[in-house]
Amino acid sequence: MSEPPEPVPEAGWRRLDRRTLLVTALVMAGVVGGAGVPVVVGLSGRLGLGAALGWAAAGAVLLIACGTGGDYIRWRRTRYRIGPERAELHTGLFVVKRRSLARERIRSVDLTAHPLLRILGLVKVRIGTGEHTGGDSTLELEPVTRAEGEWLRTQLLDRAPGAPGAHREGTLAALDLRWIRYAPISFLAPLLGGAAVGGLFQVSDWFGVQARMVRRLGDLFRDTPLGWVVVAV
Question: Does 7 have pLDDT greater than 70?
Fold first, then answer.
C-alpha cells in the first residue's frame, strides 16, 4: 500500500496545489500578450505609441488580476477526500457542489498535463466510472502534484488480483505516426488557414498596405499554374 506524499489534513480533506494561481497568471499573461499586440498597433495610430502601451498595460494587469483572483477563490473553496468507501469533491462559491463516487465504481484515473503543468511538476487528475452519464460520473482535480496524482491512481485503481476492474500496468494503445498524413484533410486545417489569412488582412489594413498586398497576391497567382494555386489554397 502506497503512502501519501504529504501529511493528510484534518478529517482527510486535501487542497489542490497552490501553484494553480501561478499557472492561471501565466496563461492569462500569454493570452493578454497575444491580444495586446494588435490592440497596441491599432491604437498607436490614434493615441500615439506611449498612450497605447499604457492603456494596453493597464488592461493587461486588470485582466490578469481578475483571472488570478477568480482562480484563488476556486482554490480556497475546493476540497477533495479519498475515504475508505468514496472519493469526494466539494467546490463552488455561490453554487456549492458536493459530489462523490463510490470507490468500487471507479474504473479510470487519468493524469494529464499541458507543457506549463509539466514544467511545474503538476498534473490534472480525472477520476471516472467509465459511464457516459455526463459530469456526475467524473471528478476532476486540477492541479495537484505529480506525486499526489500517482498516489491517487494507486489508491483508487489497485485492487486485489482478479477483482472486477483490477488495474494492470502495460501499454493500452500506441500512436501510429502514419496517421499524421491525414491531418491536412481535417476540418481544422482550413479553419486555421482561414484565420491566418483573416489576421494577415487585418494587420495589413492597420498599416495601410492591404490594397498593395492584394495586388501583389493577384500578380503572383496570375503567373502561377492552376494546379499549384489549388495546392496552395
Answer: no
In Å, the largest CA–CA distance within the chain is: 75
SS3 at position 107: coil
38: which residues sit within 8 A by CB, 6+ positions away?
A: 202, 203, 206
What percent of the chain is modeled with pLDDT above 90? 30
| Calpha distance 111→45 (Å, rounded) | 48
Residue 103 near residue 86, CB atoms below 8 Å: yes
Nearest to 141 by CA among 210, 73, 81: 81
User: Which residue ranges make up each domain of the chain?
Assistant: 17-77, 79-163, 195-225
What are 81-116's pLDDT values in tens digits? 998 889 999 988 778 888 888 988 888 899 999 999
